[in-house]
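Researcher: First entry.
Model:
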Amino acid sequence: MRIGFIIGRIGGVDGVALETEKWIHVLRSMGHKVYILSGQFQERPMDPETETLVPEISFFSPESYWSQKKAFFYPETDPGELIEHLNLYSKVIYKKIIEWVRTHKIKLLVSENASALPSHLEMGLAINKAVHKLGLPTITHDHDFAWERGDRYKSPHEEINRFVEKVFPLIAPNAIHAVINTHAQQTLKEKFGRDAVNVPNVMDFSKPFGEKNKKNARLPEYLGYTKEDIFLYQITRIVRRKGIEVAIDLLHRLNDKKIKLIITGNYADDAGSAYYNDLNEQVHDLHLSDQVRFAYHLFHNKGLTPSNGDLMFSLSDAYAQATACTYFSTYEGFGNAFVEAVLSRTPIFVNNYEPVYMPDIGSKGFKTVMLHDNVLTDEAVREMANIIYDPALAAEIADYNYALGKKYFSYDTLREKLEELIEKALALV
């Protein structure tokens, strides 16, 4: 079958793009012909036969940036110009979607979060119109929704709030929803009476990940440490909901100069660097400067080496060198970092983050040291220390978790879910 994906940005490291690539890989392995319509192809070459660039659907297009600013951040007194802009600019995108579908004879559409989160208003409206016009079976892959983002998508203009409520999420008789956690599945049913298929984020358990090699053996050297040191890794972005301050407190409580905390992500998404500054203050106050490294400059998702020849490490390299991973998030839509740790056979210390961890991951039986409300008890610290200092125990836990991860979060699981989604989508038309 000819399947067409619409996505604002593909490539790079954001969760939507990463999961989309996995869907595409599995669908192609199932024999489907997959086409991609995107506003940005990041850190990956374009295939002109199957991939189409439409700059208007980029999140960074001037028109989308302008409408986000006027709708949510710096609104005008009169929203009339904005409403007119949304209607006109969405028509441009709508026409390109229709042309793309007809040119490639697409028989099934997949909207990648563009019909769930109003981060590109015109694209969402254009897809809505195209889905109703074409009548094609459609899957909306809904990673997160406006109501999950606090006030980010609340406008002072009631007209815009009504627009968002009407367009996001897409409600159409020929569309079925795929969500990434049980909470979203339940919420869609309660708010809109819409059934959804819960499709967890997955990893490819058929390929090596997090394996030690000559390259990542040099990581301690590049961090200014030695191979005799013990490494805890925080493999996330630096944003407040990641609970990195708990990992720093854990380091302090362990009271061992040989234990180091490596934070691989950057603080680009941290508004005003406020949280990053708080973490630095904490490190300073606890006298942990020699034990904590903010090392985003060394890591790239794919380990690409820049033109200046500096060595870059991948996330797989980070996991390979980790004795354990810290993951004390307070909120996640799913939790890719958890599954990555499982895949790499790395023990993980986790907070019972809402609303996903126990319903969708923890209830599967994974062995972790789990905090509640990020309270770092003496007992939890002792359990973590036992794992850190006992390689045999760490390996036993890691192997057990790997087997569970392969059962619940592998490409085999994704294939089964995609088969179910396609069957249900085709039954709608």
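Researcher: Second entry.
Model:
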Amino acid sequence: MSWRTYSGRIREVHAREILDSRGNPTIEVEILTEEGVRARASVPSGASTGKYEAHELRDADPQRYNGKGVLRAIRNIHDEIAPHIIGLSVLDQAYIDHLLCRLDGTPNKSRLGANAILGVSLAVARAGANLYGLPLWQWLGGQRAHILPLPLVNVLNGGKHAPNPLDVQEFMLVPWGFPTFHEAIEATVRVFRQLQRLLEEKQLATGIGDEGGVAPQIATTKEALSLLMQAIERAGFTPDDHFALALDVASSELYDSSTQTYHIEGKTLTPDQWLTYWEHLINHYPIVSIEDLCAEDDWHTWQVATTRWGKHLQLVGDDLFVTNPNRLQQGITQHVANAILIKPNQIGTLTETLHVIELAQFHHYGTIISHRSGETEDPFIADLAVAVHARQIKTGGVTRTDRLAKYNQLLRIEEQLGGHAEYAGPHIQTQRQQQQKPKTSS
């Protein structure tokens, strides 16, 4: 059947207020084409957000959802966006996304709201896939899409994601030593169960944080890393061989720009002392990736860290880059970081997201497709990770339906690909271990 068989013209656009995984309102957009094809997409929301992110429009009405309602953004979809895109084809993704940006007219999408714009953009993409009966990952990525990403699995939470004194926001398992995605997930669940039992034995709380990891009442990074090492070994696996570790420091939350100092575990550290603190941990634990090691505006310390560790450690910019091509280009020019976290709601449209991914991959920056702390059951990012050959994904712990929806979708994609499926873990493991700097004792 020819691609020209369907027009894919948009007949209706409808937006509604739904709830995210934290019980806060967010937007779901539904699109109907002239052929009667329906598609919907929902928009996540972050708690630990970079100040350079695209603007999420909230109502600020204290009488509804403590001011977090999104009815203004929904009105913008119905009153301003819908009249301009009804009659356009869902096959013209780039044109529609460009039109959405022009309609908003602000640098950070603050007029219509990035949440309104993204909901429409993602719904258009899914409508295109549904129109031709294709899986979303194949619609976006074509026949070459076949790589299942290595998941960075958040199993222990701190910072803004948990009610405990732990400063570092995320402690993640990296299950790279397995031949397939489904075996990596099964092994990760085994380690997570051992972590829960270990905490119970120590009479530490095993409550779940925003992103699906446990949130015990511990206070130091070293305690958290030691717990993960014990859990890996108790599950019958070997650190480094089967599992490595990754962190999201969310250091913008720990940085005082007025004094240019970092604060952790009751200590105030200069940038040099901050890097010394992390060097000790890097040398003693199988840490292979650190996200937001330095604050979003502390470019100098980022440069020092990248020069020192960039050849053997993945240094990921999240608040630093906020899925923004201009900030990423600044990082490339200044040789800052070597990987980027990709969050579509930080920039606002699918087309812009794909542009940032292309820019990062061209310059050999690692690309990690990521969820937000306030998620929905929409698994869009799982399909996106496979479509763009991202090789890594961050989508939370192995609990909570909002997180599991993404893992389950990846399991479905692995099954759909059959013998063509390739799990990225072993390749990344080999690549990193070849680059690994010898550990030093201290």
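Model: Note on the second entry: The chain has two domains: 3-133, 143-435.
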